[in-house]
Amino acid sequence: MSRKVGGCSSGLERKLVLYTLSAAGAVAFTPPAGAQVIYTATNLLLTGGTLPIDLNHDGVEDFSLINREYANFYYSGGFLAVHGNARESPAVLGQDNQNGTQAFAVPLGFSVGSYSPAEFIPVTGRFGAEMAFEFLSYNGRGLGGHWVNVGQKFLGFRFSINNQVHYGWARLSVDAAFGPLPAVVAKLSGYAYESTPGKSIPAGYRGFVDDSSGAEAAQSAGSLGMLSLGAAGANPGHK
């Protein structure tokens, strides 16, 4: 994975990404006709190691969150990443550029599917796609990734079941800071997938338009449309 002191991209690039994702999410929340969503509520804290995500409860790990930490006399740090099961053609919403493979933290209601405003990137490499990182050493320090100090945002998934494409999401909050380990802490508070092959799913949608996820997503869609570029980049870690 690449490392860049101070973040995964320039300040302007990060603002543009945040604004684009927010604006796209503002018009994306329309539950697909005939949607059959399988939702799993969780309350799991990951401070180190690997946390598997079995979206369809078949006993096979579809994706996993990887939290690694390193510490010695000269260096300390850690990173959070998402990795997928290579047999399922796994991918997440994100980008792959000179800063490495990065997973996006998309807003509530963002469309996850074939017509998503963001691209899907494969996550079958050794560490998949980076979400957040922190390091502190005699040579400098760095804190970056689209998931740094993000509260209640979503990973967008694409994977296959019996060679048929499905889409899903995971809801996460992430804390990262300079100082004592653990450097990065992630909370997984739920995940879901659309059981109908090829159907899109809005991030955060749990299968009922009249439940709290539907109401929150609809409200989010209205408010996100009013975000300016400055507001979107002013405090990306605000919870």
What does this structure look like?
By secondary structure, the protein is mostly beta strands. The protein has one domain. Helices cover 15% and strands 42% of the residues. The chain is built from 3 helices and 15 strands. It has helices at residues 11-26, 212-224, 229-234, and strands spanning 37-40, 44-46, 49-53, 63-71, 75-84, 91-97, 100-103, 111-112, 119-122, 129-137, 140-144, 150-161, 164-176, 184-194, 201-202. Strands 1, 2, 6, 7, 9, 12, 13 and 14 form an 8-stranded antiparallel β-sheet that branches. β12 (150-161) and β13 (164-176) form a beta hairpin. 41% of the residues are buried.
List the helices and strands and how they pair.
Blueprint: H1 11-26, E1 37-40, E2 44-46, E3 49-53, E4 63-71, E5 75-84, E6 91-97, E7 100-103, E8 111-112, E9 119-122, E10 129-137, E11 140-144, E12 150-161, E13 164-176, E14 184-194, E15 201-202, H2 212-224, H3 229-234
Antiparallel strand pairs: 1-14, 2-14, 3-4, 4-5, 5-10, 6-7, 6-9, 6-12, 8-15, 10-11, 12-13, 13-14
Helix pairs in contact: 1-2
Which structural traits does this protein have?
239 residues; mainly beta; eight-stranded antiparallel sheet; five-stranded antiparallel sheet; 15 strands; 15% helix; disordered C terminus
| Secondary-structure element series | HEEEEEEEEEEEEEEEHH
Strand content: 35-45%
Straight-line distance between termini: 27 Å
Total domains: 1
Helix content: 10-25%
Summarize the structure.
The protein is mainly beta and 239 residues long.
